[in-house]
TrEMBL record:
<dbReference type="InterPro" id="IPR001789">
    <property type="entry name" value="Sig_transdc_resp-reg_receiver"/>
</dbReference>
<keyword id="KW-0597">Phosphoprotein</keyword>
<keyword id="KW-0902">Two-component regulatory system</keyword>
<dbReference type="Pfam" id="PF00072">
    <property type="entry name" value="Response_reg"/>
</dbReference>
<feature type="domain" description="Response regulatory">
    <location>
        <begin position="4"/>
        <end position="120"/>
    </location>
</feature>
<feature type="modified residue" description="4-aspartylphosphate">
    <location>
        <position position="53"/>
    </location>
</feature>
<dbReference type="InterPro" id="IPR011006">
    <property type="entry name" value="CheY-like_superfamily"/>
</dbReference>
<dbReference type="GO" id="GO:0000160">
    <property type="term" value="P:phosphorelay signal transduction system"/>
</dbReference>
<protein>
    <submittedName>
        <fullName>Response regulator</fullName>
    </submittedName>
</protein>
Length: 125
C-alpha cells in the first residue's frame, strides 16, 4: 500500500523532483502550490506525511505548520520541513512550529526517499 504524501512547495522544479523521487518509491504525491491550499488539502486528504517548504509566498511555512497542527486529526501527521533555510537555529525554528523533521535543500536524489521513509509508518506485511 502506498503512502499519501502532501507536498506543499511553490517552486515547480522542486515539486517535480520531489514528486518524481517519491513516486518512483511507490508513494502517491498530492501537490499544493501555497500554504492555504496545503492546509485545505490536509483537511480533506488526511495524508500520511506532509512535506513543507518554509519559504512560501504569503503564508510562510512556520505559519502553515502551526495551522496544520491546529486541524482536527492532524496532530499526529508527520510534517517534514524541506527548506533552503540552513542557518544556525533554522532547524529548531521548524521543530518549534510543529515540524517533526527537517531536510535541507538542495535535496540529495540518492537519499531523499530514505530520509522521508523514516517519518512514515512501517508498511503492513
Amino acid at each position: 500500500m502506498s503512502s499519501v504524501v502532501l507536498l506543499i512547495e511553490d517552486n515547480e522544479q522542486n515539486r517535480y523532483l520531489a514528486t518524481f523521487l517519491l513516486e518512483k518509491h511507490g508513494h502517491r504525491v498530492v501537490p499544493a502550490m501555497d500554504g492555504p491550499a496545503g492546509v485545505e488539502l490536509a483537511r480533506t486528504l488526511a495524508p500520511d506525511l506532509i512535506l513543507l517548504d518554509i519559504q512560501l509566498p504569503g503564508m510562510d511555512g512556520y505559519a502553515v505548520a502551526r495551522a496544520l497542527r491546529a486541524l482536527p486529526g492532524q496532530q499526529g501527521t508527520p510534517i517534514v520541513a524541506v527548506t533552503s533555510y540552513a542557518m544556525v537555529g533554522d532547524r529548531e525554528k521548524c521543530l518549534e512550529a510543529g515540524c517533526n523533521g527537517y531536510i535541507e535543500k538542495p535535496i540529495n536524489p540518492d537519499t531523499f526517499a530514505d530520509e522521508i521513509a523514516r517519518f512514515l509508518p512501517p508498511a503492513a506485511p
